[in-house]
Design a protein that fits this description.
Layout: H1 2-40, E1 57-64, E2 67-78, E3 81-85, H2 86-93, E4 96-100, E5 105-110, E6 112-120, E7 125-128, E8 131-134, E9 140-143, E10 146-150, H3 151-157, E11 160-165, E12 170-175, H4 180-201
Parallel strand pairs: 1-12
Antiparallel strand pairs: 1-2, 2-3, 3-10, 4-5, 5-6, 6-7, 7-8, 9-10, 11-12
Length: 217
């Protein structure tokens, strides 16, 4: 009789094990699912960082007419086009646009303060002078050191034409409107002419006055 009772108790415990295990597995799965959701809620989780090979790397010279704007513009060849570092391009053209590759955004203005520009790589959106538009995601890449945009796409975003001559590793820039750089160079030319005129005037011989500060009649 005692043996039957012990066996019955053992069988009862054994039968209760699956339920306990199910509860344990359920709690474990719930914890893992909750932790994965928390990680995916990171603000930069939708950003994909691209790393291109050194064979695709280009070091270009950027020119505006007879002026060399940059002799170390970084770019990458892709799909028959060229991706350019927009931070370097904006700096060379003197556009007041800040680039934050960590957040994948660029904001600022060009030509005049009321001509605003905003780029959001995560959303795949660009806002130019208040107009929102989408772009081909293959033409914009986020790298570990900056945001790179296809030269042809930059020519559509801004009233400038960016032409690439790969055989000479040269980027030629022409503008439909006077660039801030061109306006600054023109002001410097005017200032230099005025300074030259002032220096010529100061070369005239000095004439001494024939009267003294105090004299007797």
């Amino acid at each position: 009789m005692f043996l039957k009772v012990r066996c019955a108790n053992f069988i009862g415990v054994f039968r209760s094990l699956p339920a306990i295990l199910l509860v344990f597995l359920f709690l474990t799965f719930s914890k893992s699912a909750f932790s994965e959701t928390t990680v995916e809620s990171s603000p930069n989780s939708s950003l994909i960082v691209v790393e291109r090979s050194d064979e695709e790397l280009l070091v270009l010279e950027m020119r505006l007419g007879k002026y060399v704007l940059s002799d170390g513009l970084i770019g990458y060849s892709h799909r028959g086009g060229v991706l350019l570092s927009i931070a370097d391009v904006f700096y060379a053209l003197e556009f007041a646009i800040d680039v934050d590759h960590v957040s994948g955004q660029a904001t600022g203005w060009f030509f005049r303060e009321n001509r605003l520009f905003s780029l959001d790589v995560a959303r795949g959106e660009v806002v130019i002078e208040g107009k929102l538009s989408l772009y081909d995601a293959a033409l914009v890449e986020l790298h570990s050191d900056g945001i790179y945009v296809d030269a042809a796409l930059l020519s559509k975003w801004f009233p400038v034409n960016i032409e690439i001559e790969l055989s000479q590793l040269v980027v030629k820039v022409t503008s439909q409107e006077p660039l801030p750089l061109e306006l600054r160079l023109e002001r410097e030319k005017i200032r230099a002419r005025l300074n030259r005129r002032g220096s010529v005037a100061s070369d005239y011989p000095r004439a001494n006055a024939s009267y003294s500060f105090f004299d007797l009649p």
